[in-house]
Amino acid sequence: YNNRLQRHEKMEIISELAASVAHEVRNPLQVTRGFIQLLCEKGDGKEKAYLQYALEELDRASGIITDFLTFAKPQLDDVTVLRLSDEFEHIEGILVPMAHLQGGEIRVDVEDDLYVRGNSSKLKQAFVNIIKNSIEALNGEGKIEIRAYRELDDVVVRVIDNGHGMDEDELSRLGEPYFSSKTKGTGLGLMVTFRIIEVMQGRLEFISKKGVGTEAIVRFPYASSE
Ligand code: ADP
Ligand code: MG
Questions:
Q1: CB 185 within 8 A of CB 169
Q2: Of 15, 46, 65, 204, which residue is least crowded by CB atoms under 10 Å?
Q3: Please, which contacts does 91-99 make with residues 24 or more away whose CB atoms are closer than 8 Å?
Protein backbone atom coordinates (compact mmCIF):
# COMPACT_ATOMS: atom_id res chain seq x y z
CA TYR A 1 0.00 0.00 0.00
CA ASN A 2 2.70 2.39 1.04
CA ASN A 3 4.55 1.71 -2.17
CA ARG A 4 1.54 2.40 -4.27
CA LEU A 5 0.90 5.75 -2.62
CA GLN A 6 4.46 6.79 -3.28
CA ARG A 7 4.24 5.73 -6.87
CA HIS A 8 1.11 7.83 -7.31
CA GLU A 9 2.80 10.86 -5.78
CA LYS A 10 5.79 10.39 -8.03
CA MET A 11 3.53 10.26 -11.07
CA GLU A 12 1.95 13.54 -10.05
CA ILE A 13 5.30 15.21 -9.64
CA ILE A 14 6.41 13.92 -13.03
CA SER A 15 3.29 15.12 -14.81
CA GLU A 16 3.52 18.55 -13.19
CA LEU A 17 7.13 18.77 -14.24
CA ALA A 18 6.25 17.74 -17.81
CA ALA A 19 3.58 20.40 -17.95
CA SER A 20 5.88 23.20 -16.90
CA VAL A 21 8.67 22.00 -19.18
CA ALA A 22 6.24 21.94 -22.12
CA HIS A 23 5.39 25.58 -21.60
CA GLU A 24 9.01 26.60 -21.32
CA VAL A 25 10.14 24.61 -24.34
CA ARG A 26 7.48 25.71 -26.79
CA ASN A 27 8.85 29.23 -27.33
CA PRO A 28 12.47 28.37 -28.01
CA LEU A 29 11.24 25.66 -30.40
CA GLN A 30 9.31 28.28 -32.35
CA VAL A 31 12.27 30.67 -32.44
CA THR A 32 14.60 27.90 -33.61
CA ARG A 33 12.10 26.96 -36.29
CA GLY A 34 12.10 30.53 -37.59
CA PHE A 35 15.88 30.67 -37.95
CA ILE A 36 16.13 27.28 -39.62
CA GLN A 37 13.38 28.29 -42.00
CA LEU A 38 15.44 31.35 -42.97
CA LEU A 39 18.55 29.22 -43.58
CA CYS A 40 16.48 26.74 -45.51
CA GLU A 41 15.29 29.41 -47.93
CA LYS A 42 18.90 30.41 -48.68
CA GLY A 43 20.49 26.98 -48.62
CA ASP A 44 20.81 24.64 -51.55
CA GLY A 45 21.23 20.96 -52.34
CA LYS A 46 22.30 18.76 -49.48
CA GLU A 47 22.26 21.62 -47.00
CA LYS A 48 18.64 22.34 -47.76
CA ALA A 49 17.71 18.69 -47.37
CA TYR A 50 19.34 18.51 -43.93
CA LEU A 51 17.59 21.69 -42.82
CA GLN A 52 14.31 20.28 -44.06
CA TYR A 53 14.81 17.21 -41.85
CA ALA A 54 15.60 19.49 -38.93
CA LEU A 55 12.33 21.36 -39.50
CA GLU A 56 10.34 18.15 -39.67
CA GLU A 57 11.82 16.93 -36.42
CA LEU A 58 11.11 20.27 -34.74
CA ASP A 59 7.51 19.99 -35.89
CA ARG A 60 7.36 16.52 -34.43
CA ALA A 61 8.53 17.87 -31.08
CA SER A 62 5.87 20.61 -31.17
CA GLY A 63 3.28 18.03 -32.17
CA ILE A 64 4.02 15.96 -29.10
CA ILE A 65 3.55 19.00 -26.87
CA THR A 66 0.32 19.92 -28.63
CA ASP A 67 -1.20 16.45 -28.34
CA PHE A 68 -0.15 15.92 -24.74
CA LEU A 69 0.12 19.23 -23.03
CA THR A 70 -1.59 22.14 -24.78
CA PHE A 71 -3.53 23.12 -21.70
CA ALA A 72 -1.45 21.44 -19.07
CA LYS A 73 -1.00 23.59 -16.03
CA PRO A 74 1.98 23.10 -13.77
CA GLN A 75 -0.09 22.55 -10.64
CA LEU A 76 -1.99 19.68 -9.10
CA ASP A 77 -5.04 18.84 -11.15
CA ASP A 78 -8.13 20.18 -9.53
CA VAL A 79 -11.40 18.50 -10.30
CA THR A 80 -14.52 20.65 -10.25
CA VAL A 81 -17.95 20.81 -11.81
CA LEU A 82 -17.48 22.27 -15.28
CA ARG A 83 -20.04 24.08 -17.37
CA LEU A 84 -19.65 22.63 -20.83
CA SER A 85 -20.65 25.79 -22.69
CA ASP A 86 -17.85 27.72 -20.96
CA GLU A 87 -15.30 25.06 -21.83
CA PHE A 88 -16.40 24.99 -25.45
CA GLU A 89 -16.12 28.75 -25.73
CA HIS A 90 -12.38 28.39 -25.11
CA ILE A 91 -12.09 25.39 -27.40
CA GLU A 92 -13.82 27.31 -30.20
CA GLY A 93 -11.43 30.20 -29.78
CA ILE A 94 -8.52 27.93 -30.58
CA LEU A 95 -10.02 25.69 -33.22
CA VAL A 96 -12.14 27.95 -35.39
CA PRO A 97 -9.09 29.79 -36.78
CA MET A 98 -7.36 26.44 -37.31
CA ALA A 99 -10.35 25.16 -39.28
CA HIS A 100 -10.53 28.30 -41.41
CA LEU A 101 -6.86 27.90 -42.26
CA GLN A 102 -7.75 24.51 -43.77
CA GLY A 103 -10.77 25.93 -45.58
CA GLY A 104 -13.13 24.17 -43.22
CA GLU A 105 -16.12 25.29 -41.23
CA ILE A 106 -17.13 24.49 -37.63
CA ARG A 107 -20.61 24.75 -36.15
CA VAL A 108 -20.95 24.49 -32.39
CA ASP A 109 -24.24 23.90 -30.64
CA VAL A 110 -23.82 23.27 -26.91
CA GLU A 111 -26.92 23.35 -24.70
CA ASP A 112 -26.80 25.75 -21.79
CA ASP A 113 -27.11 23.72 -18.61
CA LEU A 114 -24.72 20.86 -19.15
CA TYR A 115 -22.38 20.10 -16.27
CA VAL A 116 -19.68 17.48 -15.98
CA ARG A 117 -17.15 16.69 -13.29
CA GLY A 118 -13.49 16.95 -14.25
CA ASN A 119 -10.41 19.07 -14.75
CA SER A 120 -10.85 21.98 -17.12
CA SER A 121 -7.43 21.76 -18.82
CA LYS A 122 -7.75 18.02 -19.37
CA LEU A 123 -11.27 18.27 -20.75
CA LYS A 124 -10.17 20.90 -23.25
CA GLN A 125 -7.15 18.81 -24.23
CA ALA A 126 -9.42 15.82 -24.89
CA PHE A 127 -11.75 17.71 -27.20
CA VAL A 128 -9.04 19.66 -28.96
CA ASN A 129 -7.39 16.35 -29.89
CA ILE A 130 -10.66 14.96 -31.30
CA ILE A 131 -11.58 18.12 -33.19
CA LYS A 132 -8.05 18.70 -34.49
CA ASN A 133 -8.22 15.26 -36.09
CA SER A 134 -11.51 16.21 -37.74
CA ILE A 135 -9.95 19.40 -39.10
CA GLU A 136 -6.98 17.45 -40.42
CA ALA A 137 -9.32 14.94 -42.11
CA LEU A 138 -11.16 17.62 -44.08
CA ASN A 139 -10.37 18.21 -47.68
CA GLY A 140 -11.64 21.35 -49.33
CA GLU A 141 -15.27 21.96 -48.44
CA GLY A 142 -15.10 20.44 -45.03
CA LYS A 143 -17.70 20.79 -42.32
CA ILE A 144 -17.51 19.93 -38.65
CA GLU A 145 -20.50 19.89 -36.40
CA ILE A 146 -20.25 19.78 -32.62
CA ARG A 147 -23.41 19.08 -30.67
CA ALA A 148 -23.81 18.68 -26.94
CA TYR A 149 -27.01 17.81 -25.14
CA ARG A 150 -28.41 15.90 -22.20
CA GLU A 151 -29.77 12.38 -22.56
CA LEU A 152 -31.21 10.99 -19.31
CA ASP A 153 -28.25 10.86 -16.89
CA ASP A 154 -25.65 11.42 -19.58
CA VAL A 155 -24.13 14.47 -21.15
CA VAL A 156 -23.50 13.61 -24.79
CA VAL A 157 -21.03 15.41 -27.04
CA ARG A 158 -20.89 14.50 -30.73
CA VAL A 159 -18.22 15.68 -33.14
CA ILE A 160 -19.23 14.98 -36.74
CA ASP A 161 -17.04 15.63 -39.76
CA ASN A 162 -17.33 14.96 -43.47
CA GLY A 163 -13.62 14.27 -43.82
CA HIS A 164 -11.89 11.31 -45.42
CA GLY A 165 -13.12 8.79 -42.86
CA MET A 166 -11.55 5.50 -41.78
CA ASP A 167 -11.83 1.84 -42.63
CA GLU A 168 -12.41 -0.97 -40.11
CA ASP A 169 -8.72 -1.54 -39.56
CA GLU A 170 -7.97 2.12 -38.78
CA LEU A 171 -11.04 2.33 -36.53
CA SER A 172 -9.93 -0.63 -34.47
CA ARG A 173 -6.51 0.94 -33.88
CA LEU A 174 -7.71 4.31 -32.54
CA GLY A 175 -6.11 5.14 -29.23
CA GLU A 176 -3.20 2.78 -29.78
CA PRO A 177 0.00 4.69 -28.99
CA TYR A 178 1.90 5.82 -32.12
CA PHE A 179 -0.82 4.74 -34.51
CA SER A 180 -0.95 7.54 -37.09
CA SER A 181 -1.71 7.77 -40.79
CA LYS A 182 -0.13 11.22 -41.02
CA THR A 183 3.42 12.06 -42.03
CA LYS A 184 3.66 14.56 -39.20
CA GLY A 185 1.38 12.76 -36.76
CA THR A 186 2.37 11.73 -33.25
CA GLY A 187 -0.23 9.01 -32.83
CA LEU A 188 -0.56 10.16 -29.24
CA GLY A 189 -3.58 12.48 -29.43
CA LEU A 190 -6.33 9.91 -29.09
CA MET A 191 -4.40 7.81 -26.60
CA VAL A 192 -4.37 10.87 -24.32
CA THR A 193 -8.01 11.62 -25.08
CA PHE A 194 -9.26 8.10 -24.30
CA ARG A 195 -7.37 8.20 -21.01
CA ILE A 196 -8.76 11.60 -19.98
CA ILE A 197 -12.33 10.55 -20.76
CA GLU A 198 -11.92 7.26 -18.91
CA VAL A 199 -10.66 9.06 -15.80
CA MET A 200 -13.75 11.30 -16.01
CA GLN A 201 -15.92 8.13 -15.95
CA GLY A 202 -16.92 8.86 -19.52
CA ARG A 203 -16.92 6.84 -22.72
CA LEU A 204 -15.68 7.60 -26.22
CA GLU A 205 -16.66 5.76 -29.36
CA PHE A 206 -16.10 6.36 -33.05
CA ILE A 207 -18.26 5.65 -36.05
CA SER A 208 -16.66 6.17 -39.43
CA LYS A 209 -16.98 5.39 -43.09
CA LYS A 210 -14.16 5.70 -45.59
CA GLY A 211 -14.78 8.59 -47.95
CA VAL A 212 -17.83 9.79 -46.04
CA GLY A 213 -16.79 11.02 -42.61
CA THR A 214 -16.38 10.33 -38.93
CA GLU A 215 -18.40 10.79 -35.80
CA ALA A 216 -16.92 10.82 -32.30
CA ILE A 217 -19.43 10.30 -29.51
CA VAL A 218 -18.50 11.14 -25.93
CA ARG A 219 -20.70 10.38 -22.94
CA PHE A 220 -20.15 11.72 -19.43
CA PRO A 221 -22.21 11.25 -16.31
CA TYR A 222 -24.30 14.38 -15.76
CA ALA A 223 -23.09 16.38 -12.76
CA SER A 224 -25.43 18.74 -10.96
CA SER A 225 -24.28 22.35 -10.79
CA GLU A 226 -23.99 22.24 -6.98
P1 ADP B 1 -2.32 11.81 -35.05
O2 ADP B 1 -3.38 12.85 -35.23
O3 ADP B 1 -1.04 12.39 -34.56
O4 ADP B 1 -2.14 10.95 -36.27
P5 ADP B 1 -4.22 10.64 -33.22
O6 ADP B 1 -4.09 9.71 -32.07
O7 ADP B 1 -4.84 11.97 -32.94
O8 ADP B 1 -2.78 10.80 -33.87
O9 ADP B 1 -5.07 9.93 -34.36
C10 ADP B 1 -4.67 8.66 -34.84
C11 ADP B 1 -5.18 8.38 -36.25
O12 ADP B 1 -6.58 8.17 -36.23
C13 ADP B 1 -4.97 9.49 -37.26
O14 ADP B 1 -3.68 9.47 -37.82
C15 ADP B 1 -6.04 9.16 -38.30
O16 ADP B 1 -5.59 8.16 -39.17
C17 ADP B 1 -7.16 8.56 -37.46
N18 ADP B 1 -8.26 9.53 -37.20
C19 ADP B 1 -8.57 10.07 -36.00
N20 ADP B 1 -9.62 10.91 -36.09
C21 ADP B 1 -10.00 10.90 -37.40
C22 ADP B 1 -11.03 11.56 -38.15
N23 ADP B 1 -11.89 12.41 -37.58
N24 ADP B 1 -11.12 11.29 -39.47
C25 ADP B 1 -10.26 10.42 -40.07
N26 ADP B 1 -9.27 9.78 -39.44
C27 ADP B 1 -9.12 10.01 -38.11
MG1 MG C 1 -4.33 13.93 -33.71
A1: no
A2: 46
A3: 91/124, 91/127, 91/128, 91/131, 94/128, 95/128, 95/131, 95/132, 95/135, 98/132, 98/135, 99/135, 99/138, 99/142, 99/144
Question: How many angstroms is it from 191 CA to the middle of ligand 2?
Answer: 9
Measure Cα distances from 110 to 18, 86, 116, 148, 157 in Å.
Answer: 32, 10, 13, 5, 8
β-bridge mates for residue 191, sequence order: none
| Cβ(188)–Cβ(174) below 8 Å | no
pLDDT of 44-80, one tens digit each? 899 999 999 999 999 999 998 888 887 777 666 689 9
pTM of model > 0.90:
no
Beta bridge partners of 115: 83
Of 216, 82, 84, the residue nearest 148 (C-alpha):
84
| 42 alpha carbon – ligand 2 mean position (Å) | 32
Residue ranges around ligand 1 (CB below 6 Å): 129, 133-134, 137, 161, 163-166, 170, 174, 179-182, 185-191, 214
DSSP reduced 3-state for 220: strand
